[in-house]
Amino acid sequence: MNSKSLTFFLYLTSLISSTDIDQRWRKLSRAINLAPNAALCAISSRSHDKAAAFAAANGFPLSAKVYGSYEALLEDPEVDAVYMPLPTSLHLKWAVLAAQNKKHLLLEKPVALDVTQFDRILEACESSGVQFMDNTMWVHNPRTAAMANFLNDAQRFGNLKSVRTCFTSAADPDYLNSNIRVKPDLDALGSLGDHGWYCIRAILLAANYELPKTVVASYEPVLNKDGVILDCGASLYWEDGKVATFHCSFLANLTMDITAIGTRGTLHVHDFIIPYHEKEASFLAGTQTSFDDLVTGWAKQPSKHTIKTDLPQEALLVREFARLVADIKFKNSKPDKKWPIISRKTQLVLDAVKASIQKGFEPVQIQE
Question: Start and end of every GFO/IDH/MocA-like oxidoreductase domain (predicted)?
């Protein structure tokens, strides 16, 4: 028996109706093939022919099952888990149905249109005893753990004072006209739900997942003709004086930055979501940096830390998800609550930003 057969089979379900979803699908299919404890075993779509064509083009084994409906896959008693890259507006229906059918769930972000919907998904997962995880890949990169170690080191970083994050990308006209991310009936959260999700998650990581008390959206977000957010930002405030800001946009050059400033140190990252290189990722960390005597240069500069990995971050995500599912299936373990809690906190902040925009940029208090 090979190592993959010792864990569990990962079954996937997809709409496969847009370039955006197709790209995510290809990336996850490759990641599952690379993960040592997962296997591609099935695919579903609204069209059997589309599902079969995708499976043939993306490394699915000849034994993989091909379904022409989501229901057929979810009703298969041999299916253990599903990856669900459907548009956010469809998450509630299909995620709940997946959980009710005892399928462990790897769900695309944003996880829901709002936290009320997400709580219904979590309730279904908890009732069925299945594992939930969202598909935020960069947090599974070993660089992220190294960054967190620095941020939580009182001697090197001190106490967090401020965080700035940014994720922007210059979408082409076709994307801005037809992508699911700009359609109010598919992904109504737009850039806030897509790019902003990553920015908020990075801020929460820097704050050790402590929720802010107050959120204020930045003035004048850019909306398309259907009211979907294309460009926006916000400021987040904690009771102890920490502050964070972020900017997310479909209308600016590709940028993926984190700057976290503490009382003793500073962290800089310029490719936090997709690293410049697949098998290694770096960040800059400085502790008590300072000028030289004449203030013509820096006497103590930040240092570069490079973390290498044998597997890309998306395969590491799959490996962790597969490990948790295998523990539940074979060791009678309980689902890990860490990932649902982190997802819910991210959704809470996202909801507060949206509410602040809708209320004319008034402060919104977060209630956990």
Answer: 153-267
| Closest by Cα among 367, 144, 361, 185 to 267 | 144
- Whether 277 is in a domain gets the answer yes
What DSSP character marks residue 288? S
Q: What is the pLDDT of residues 245-276, one digit of tens each?
A: 999 999 999 999 999 999 999 999 999 999 99
Q: 166 with 307, same domain? A: yes
Do 101 and 149 sit in the same domain of this protein? Answer: no
User: CA separation (Å) from 75 to 11, 46, 64, 96, 322?
Assistant: 12, 15, 16, 13, 20
Instruction: Return the percent helix, strand and coil in the chain, to nearest 5.
Output: 40, 25, 35
Residue whose tokens read 């972000």: 109
Range of the domain at 186: 139-313+346-365
pTM of the model: 0.94
- Rounded CA separation 196/164 (Å): 12
How far is CA 315 from each of CA 169, 240, 289, rounded to the nearest angstrom? 24, 38, 36
